[in-house]
Write a structure and sequence with these properties.
The chain is mainly alpha-helical and 223 residues long. It is built from nine helices and three strands; from the N terminus they run αβααββαααααα. Strands 1-3-2 form a three-stranded antiparallel beta sheet. Strand 2 and strand 3 form a beta hairpin. Helix 2 packs across helix 3. The longest helix is centred in the last third of the chain and has 26 residues. It is elongated and about 55 Å long. The relative contact order is 0.13.
Length: 223
């Protein structure tokens, strides 16, 4: 894959997507330095949209900007991932316990709809992207239903850090875990419907740590 020049009228909107896709597709490797002037030339745009795109990518945790050193594609160590998952688990379990009492019928209906989306077979990269989006929405509903805005902000920050690890992990076993993932999601929704906060937290903790173990294994394999 190579970067191609963008149509001028689309440049402002397209630079971010082009660079993000470069990271997602491994065109840019973890730790690789990104040169603004070089990217500008390859994409056929001015420096400004490239700088703006890099700032947006940095806010998502996909790149790291080091003053006087440059801009680099982000990377996480196994220890970073394990520590981040520990914090994510604490935040999400707290949110779910609070959400158990506050989730309304619309939220529960949407969670049930997402269960159906997550049960669809995955054959293409687009199928997997749709699956990941549904999975993210599933967990975000629990976070938002907590009503705690600071918790939500902290959680989004953690997700930005985990995103880069997922992108660059060479995980091959995710298909074999889809059935287990679906069963865990169903258990979480059922516990929420029964307003059983303890069961929600226990099932969610198991679900999150299983995902952590799989991601750590995939990153170690990639390294």
């Amino acid at each position: 894959m190579e970067l191609v020049k963008l149509q001028r009228q689309r440049a402002v909107d397209a630079v971010y997507e082009a660079l993000r896709e470069g990271i997602l597709s491994h065109l840019f490797k973890p730790g690789e330095r990104l040169h603004v002037d070089e990217l500008s030339e390859k994409l056929g745009v001015s420096l400004t949209p490239v700088r703006n795109a890099i700032q947006q990518l940095a806010s998502e945790g996909l790149v790291e900007i080091h003053p006087r050193s440059g801009t680099f594609v982000a990377k996480l160590s196994v220890q970073d991932i394990e520590e981040t998952f520990e914090i994510r688990c604490a935040l999400e379990c707290l949110a779910a316990e609070k959400a158990t009492a506050s989730l309304d019928g619309a939220d529960l209906d949407r969670l049930r709809e997402l269960l159906l989306l997550l049960s669809r077979p995955i054959h293409t990269s687009e199928d997997r992207k749709a699956h990941e989006q549904a999975n993210s929405e599933f967990h975000r509903i629990l976070i938002q239903a907590s009503g705690n805005r600071r918790l939500q902000d902290m959680y989004e920050g953690l997700n930005a850090h985990l995103k880069i690890a997922r992108i660059h992990g060479s995980e091959q076993s995710w298909r074999s875990r889809l059935g287990e993932e679906q069963a865990e999601h169903l258990q979480i929704v059922t516990a929420l419907e029964n307003r059983d906060a303890n069961l929600v937290a226990a099932t969610l903790r198991k679900h999150i740590y299983r995902a952590k173990d799989a991601l750590v294994a995939s990153v170690r394999q990639a390294e």
